[in-house]
What does this fold into?
Amino acid sequence: MGEVGMPRELVVFKGSRQGLKVLLDPEAEFSAVAGELRRKLTRSDGFFAGASVRISTGGRELPPEQIGELARIVKEEFGLKLSAIEQLNEDLAWEPSENEGQASGAASRLVDQGGFDSRMMDRATLMVKRTLRSGQSVRYNGNVVVLGDANPGSEIIASGDIIVMGSLRGVAHAGATGDRQAMVAAFRLLPTQLRIAHFIARAPDEKQPLPNVPEIARIKDDLVVVEEYVS
Amino acid sequence: MAGKVIVITSGKGGVGKTTTTANLGTGLAALGRKVALLDADIGLRNLDVVMGLENRIVYDIVDVAEGNCRLRQALIKDKRYEHLFLLPAAQTRDKNAVTPEQMKNICDELRKEFDYILIDSPAGIEQGFKNAIAGADSAIIVTTPEVSAVRDADRIIGLLEAAELRDPKLILNRLRPDMVKKGDMMDIDDVIEILAISLIGVVPEDENIIIFTNRGEPVVLDQNSPAGQAYRNIVRRLEGEEVPLMSFQGSSSFLSLFKRLVGIGGR
It folds into this structure.
């Protein structure tokens, strides 16, 4: 992470147990940072609306009017809940991510290392009680469980885990706000493309034997690994 | 008496919506039903050509919607059957010339006089599609055994669900049993597994379709062609009869298909 020579990102979003965390570049000009924050939130297309967010200034102390502007952008313009603006220096290093708008490796350190059961309980879960068909999309700040299939051409994007109680043939993005502990499980895991945090995987081009057991995908050593699901 | 309004749609173009509409309509009329065919493909009309009625058009669906004529004046009587009528699309206008409310009104008026109203939907998911489904009670989805057509059919099923048109029926068109046998074409099971809706018929690829369509005659009236037989079977199923699927020589999925048809409610 943090390749030399890469331009610094002014605003980085990270998912954490406490919710969304927004890290601001402490050295850049405030107006540029505020503009970038607005731009990223606009591009997220309401995905974060209602989420609680902590803003970290990366150790810089901001004058009250700038604090006020940040709060106004987040709360009034984009409808997020602002839980705190942190101006203290943290031991967490400022790391620009490889993938714009998604979290870097540091995010995983914020996440509890406990089993996925406890992580599941921390987040709200959306139950989709139907089959997702081509062109249908579910975006949710939390876990998503589909009671049905997710057909080719469908899309599931969740900040938490994704479970499909049928065939997953579409695109699934778990840990979309950067949670590398997120996982995707399906009764039949045959996705067009699978994304976890900022890792992207797809099926090999050669024809693969169809799985006949439930499988689970997660990140291991910076790779998306698919394994048979054992309870 | 309230007739059934059925929209025939697919998403993808060229899979056989118009041919299916013409054949099912003619087949129902041959059983003595009163049938109206409604071409909703405004600007690209061709149901009239397939029916061989092109030269009889005076008024069209846009004229009816705009009040330039009465519905009865625009309905064209078929050459072969007394109780089969066509309401043609306009060729010089586009899809926005009619609103969903106007379509619904036209369907409701036709419903009073006919047993079946079959709507030939345009390809796509835009205004023309929305118009076509506006007045319908149920839908028949036509697809071919190709991944692109199946993908589009899936999209259409989702849109129909959103429009509260429940329980659409599937016609799998242009199946080539020889290719399925060699593993070069999706078979019935593959398609049903993705779409998970009930199958009302399978129509094999048949060059008679081209011959008859070019003559402006529906193949359903041809007693010798496999496609004609397949359409007659679908017509009987629409009438509530239980007709087993045709057995295609070499189709390995024939038995498992029955299992699926039986088990479909559980999905």
Remarks:
- Chain B has one domain: 4-262.
- Chain B has twelve helices and eight strands.
- The two ends of chain B are 34 Å apart (CA to CA).
